[in-house]
Amino acid sequence: MTDPPYFLDKMDNGWDEKKVASTKYHHVVKSLPAGMKFDREQGKNFYEWYYKISKQILRVLKPGGFFFSFSSPRLYHRMVSAMDDAGFLIRDCFIWLYTQNQPKAMSLNHFIDKLNENEQTKTNLKKQLNGWKTPQIKSCFEPIVMAQKEPEGTFLENFRKYQVGLLNTQVKIGQDMFPANVVSTDAINEVVDKCFLISKPDKKEKGNFNAHRTVKPLSLCEYIINLTTYSPEAIVLDPFAGSGTTLVAAKKFGRKFIGIDINKEYLAMVKTRLNSLGRNVVPYDFVGAEKQLRIFEKKAKYKRLRKGKLAKAV
Length: 314
Ligand SMILES: C[S@@+](CC[C@H](N)C(=O)[O-])C[C@H]1O[C@@H](n2cnc3c(N)ncnc32)[C@H](O)[C@@H]1O
Fold this sequence. Notes:
Elements: H1 41-60, E1 66-70, H2 76-86, E2 89-97, H3 109-113, H4 119-128, E3 141-148, H5 155-162, E4 182-184, H6 190-196, H7 218-228, E5 235-238, H8 245-252, E6 256-259, H9 264-276
Parallel strand pairs: 2-4, 5-6
Antiparallel strand pairs: 1-3, 2-3
Helix pairs in contact: 1-2, 7-8
The structure holds S-adenosylmethionine.
């Protein structure tokens, strides 16, 4: 499972760093500078890059293994095409739904002011375009593709051989509902919460030291790991680990994990987050429906069995 840079990062060389609102963590771009043209090559470059990444992920995954990848509504199609062309079966699209986000649409007043027109024309134009802004709607979801490496034989044959490739439908979402591909971490309203709400992000879950700008909710990563991993020997790989949310979720869930990130500062955060969980996090191999995700909130105690074997929730 991973949350790659959406190619808004400076992975192409065509962007002038000084013109792009860069943060101290220089891989992250806050927003496109005002008036920046839509780069038609961006999606194609992303496709080519992600095709190579997907090939490598396909190579190391077991047959039937899942590849969940976060994306943005604007570049999702390129990402999924790259994964599809690399050989993955595209099984579904999850949606992480939220209500709060900064609208990016810009007023045109700034550009109208620069027009070579008289003041009256400019005033009229501003009046005419009152409320009309650039085509950037407030974005309130993130698409997450669920892809799978082709299973060997039937699902059952593959599962018996590799312990992967099925979904654990005992995992519940909302108020004990069958797992869905829509997930919300905001309480929205009764119906949505009943069907799609998973635990709200806890303010402490990132850690005070965590300066990463795109930290994903832990409960979302837990949900996906809980849905898809069966064996305690399963390895969760995040090749763009950031501050390590996927890895924290895997560790909490008693799964093995491998995280990779290009940025050493982020890796230091990952280590701090993982260490803060302590050594005794080997949760369980099975949790009854009634306990499911909420178990994390209740700080359930676990008993570690000898020789690193699985422990059961107590
Ligand atoms: C969107 S962030 C992941 C955030 C993560 N989901 C979290 O919750 O903290 C993507 C990460 O990819 C890393 N990255 C960018 N290019 C990379 C590369 N070529 N190889 C490895 N990591 C890279 C960035 O440093 C960044 O931390």
